[in-house]
Amino acid sequence: MQTLSTTDVLARFGKALADPTRSSILLRLKDGPAFPADLAESIGVSRQILSNHLACLRDCGLVVAEPVGRRVRYELSDARLAHALGDLLQVILTVERICTCPIEDCAV
């Protein structure tokens, strides 16, 4: 087991959130544990794609796999992650649109 620095933790969290599929998985798990088949169906991806993203999230330390009989259930590795995700969803970002086209007075 390795203890990471705060910047490493943030980098792993950022890597996880940088992909829409991984973000969807984390948001779904924010509401509670789930089985891979249910996750795949609820976010609309194949089980193979989901499996690849779950492996990444496990490598980042954000989710854990818990055996339940013959199945495996996934959940957030720390309950505070659910709170952090909830807080992030409350942030309002203002993104300035910058037109880089060569046309002067572009309506975009």
Tell me what you see in this structure.
This protein has 108 residues and is mostly helical. It has one domain: Orthogonal Bundle (Arc Repressor Mutant, subunit A). It is built from five helices and two strands; from the N terminus they run ααααββα. Helix 3 packs across helix 4. The longest helix has 13 residues. It is globular and about 65 Å long. The termini are far apart. 14% of the residues are buried. The model has no long low-confidence stretch (mean pLDDT 89).
The major pleated sheet works out as: 2 strands, antiparallel
Helix residue percentage: 40-55%
Beta-sheet strand percentage?
A: 5-15%
CATH architecture: Orthogonal Bundle
| Count of DSSP H/I helices | 5
What do we call the CATH homologous superfamily?
Answer: Winged helix-like DNA-binding domain superfamily/Winged helix DNA-binding domain
Shape: globular
User: Which fold name is given in CATH as the topology?
Assistant: Arc Repressor Mutant, subunit A
Order of helices and strands: HHHHEEH
Average pLDDT confidence is 89
**Main sheet: strand order:** 1-2
Structural class computed from helices and strand pairing = mainly alpha
Regions with pLDDT < 50 over 5+ consecutive residues?
none
Q: Which radius of gyration do the C-alpha atoms yield? A: 18 Å
Distance between the termini: 51 Å
Please identify the top-level CATH class: Mainly Alpha
